[in-house]
Amino acid sequence: MRGRESMFTRGFRALTGAVLITWLVLPLIPLGIWSFARGWYFPDLLPRNWSLRAWEYTLSDTAGVIECLWLTIGISLAATFLSIIVGVPAGRALGLYRFRGKELVELMILAPTIVPGIAVVLGIHSVFIALGLNNTVGGVIIVHLIPTLPYMVLVMSGIFANYDPSYEAQARSLGASALETFWYITVPAIMPGVIVGGLFAFLVSWSQYILTLLIGGGKVVTLPLLLFNFATSNRNDITGAIGMIYILPGILILLMTARHLSGRSSAVGGFGTI
Amino acid sequence: MTQVSLKELTKVYQGATEPSLDRLSLEIASGELAALLGPSGCGKTTTMKMIAGLLEPTSGDVQFGGRSILHEKPEKRGVVMVFQNYLLFPYMNVAENIGFGLKMRKVDKREISRRVGDMLSLVKLPDLGSRRPSELSGGQQQRVALARALIVEPDVLLLDEPLSNLDAHLRFEMRDLIRGLQQDLKITTIFVTHDQEEAVVLADKVALILDGRLKQYAGAEEFYNRPVDEATARFFGGQNFVQGHSDGSRFESALGALDLPEGAATGPGKLTFRPENVRIGHAEASRNRLTASLSDKLFMGTQTRLKLRVGGELIDVVANPNEVAGISNGDELKISLPPSSLWVLAN
Asked: Does A57 touch chain B (CB under 8 A)?
């Protein structure tokens, strides 16, 4: 098929590729330049003086950026892990079974992606204060589940809609225990979905600002919060350096998954037909 | 060697008013090959799943060798079920699929590979171990599914519609393979099917289930010659039912008075006989001679189906095409009904 693509198709593909790259990569270039600049003033096209000062500061112990990076990674990994633990069974229920009120449950799970975070978090804030979860890392991890779960559940319900539980019955019948069945039959079938959903969850958690700010109460400082602090205090060079670190996971994940998210191999699991 | 007993097995699904399976009692002798036959939705797959432990009965009991197994988990029952669509694990190759049950039993890897090799040659697929299930034909997948079940040497083997997904020419081959393996290994085997032909060619005994109830449990021939009622006879292709009265030796009806075999029911009832057991022509020794007129004729290749009018009744007859080649509608025809082919269904 590939050889038969028309000029138009190929041209359109090249055009969308170019637009996408312009849109996504171009805004990042000034940020990268800033991180190596020592002053960069209008009307200069490039900074007159270059320096590694911003990077030196960013990577030093005193700045606390590295510490903050590890905290952010920890929070995002924990939120991702919890999303998987909750999202897989929820996706299974939504994908495999029909039950009364299913549409309502689906809507409730999707709601956080529609309703603005700030509206949700103000209510949750008072609940978390009552529970003593405000200003804690645990509280931040839990509140991150609000935006990460919809993605996880949505991806997993898609996987389970294309899943035949008879395979599990067959494995049980052949002598596998419930746990062995899950490990040998269910996990390989849903793994691609878990990975894709997990990457989504990680990135969504990674980029949370308002939820972290309100529930963390300034005590739990993740990378986006730190980034914002520097951005508003006119330190464009340090903002640039932290910004570069901040976008790293996104780029890595994009590189790892680009192959799976495009074209004919975009199916992410299930048993399909054999 | 395991005898399987179902005792008053009943399943009422949640929210259902009628039971899907109503007090089914069956004894399947050790090493026997039994069929559960019935139209879709009659409760036969439900029965199978309850034996396999994949479904909990509402009441009743399943016993292997006289011992109830209802409290056992599916993987501990010694039962393996082969599903209709084979369900080969797509993430494993053929050898891994077949060896799965042994792996779950923590059998040594070298032992697994040796026994998988034996199994592959037993089901006549010696060189396909490294193939993916998606690369196999339907018949090959069926063999792999069977090998995967047999390798764990189950006490009881359950087969769900084992022949129905196969082409006509593969069915006989598969039938011989299943039958042969079952005889060699002496595994008590139960299969479900909606196809009476499949049940007849494969099974020692057939249990006919209609609307969740056991109608008859007998050898295949009895369903043709000695059905318990009209629904059973019709399920096996019975067409001829003539209302009348039996005195035990003769049956009075619109067809006249006909001699009955010994042991026929008495009183008012229906006379039934297979279309293929009606003899064309009057031989010297034939009893129950009748004269009929042809009302319709359908040539079907290896046989010709006739509709004959006798004393106001229409009866169905299957004849050898050559015997009835010359006759046409309205012609008179001599037929006879051998007493041994008649059967009375008491009202």
From this structure: no
Q: Note the pTM of the prediction, 2 decimals.
A: 0.77
> Cα A35 to the chain's mean position, in Å?
25
Q: What is the C-alpha separation between B251 and B345, in angstroms, rounded?
A: 11
Q: Which residues of B touch A184 (CB under 8 A)?
A: 89, 100
A64-269 CATH: 1.10.3720.10
- Sequence spans of domains, chain A: 64-269
Burial class of residue A94 (count of CB atoms within 10 Å of its CB; 0-12, 13-18, 19+): buried
| A167 close contact with B: CB closer than 8 A | yes
Nearest-5° Cα angle at A208, A202 to A211: 130
Separation of alpha carbons B253 and B291, rounded Å: 15
> Where do runs of H (alpha helix) occur along chain A?
7-25, 28-35, 53-59, 65-96, 102-114, 117-131, 137-161, 166-173, 178-181, 187-206, 210-216, 223-232, 236-261
User: How many residue contacts between A and B have a Cβ separation below 8 Å?
Assistant: 64
Which of chain A's residues have a Cβ under 8 Å away from the Cβ of B100? 171, 174, 176, 184
Tokens of A8: 């138009």
Taking CB atoms and an 8 Å limit, are B87 and A170 in contact across chains? yes
Q: Note the ipTM here.
A: 0.77
Interface of B with A in 269-308 (CB under 8 A): none
| Residue B154 near residue B79 (C-beta atoms within 8 A) | yes
> Residues A40, A41, A46, A49: what is their CA dihedral angle, to the nearest 10 degrees?
-50
Subunit contact A176:B134, Cβ cutoff 8 A: no
- What are the pLDDT tens digits along chain B (347 aa)? 689 999 999 999 988 888 889 999 999 999 999 999 998 888 888 899 999 998 999 999 999 998 999 999 888 888 999 998 899 999 999 999 999 999 999 999 999 999 999 999 988 888 888 999 999 988 899 899 999 999 998 999 999 988 887 787 888 888 888 888 888 888 999 999 998 888 888 899 999 998 888 999 999 889 998 899 999 999 998 899 999 999 988 999 988 889 998 888 889 999 999 999 999 887 777 788 888 999 999 999 999 999 999 988 899 999 999 888 888 898 998 999 999 899 999 88
Assess A173–B contact: CB distance below 8 Å, yes or no: yes
- B-chain CB neighbours of A166 within 8 Å are 83, 85, 87
DSSP B82-106: E-TT----TTS-HHHHHHHHHHHTT
SS3 A42: coil
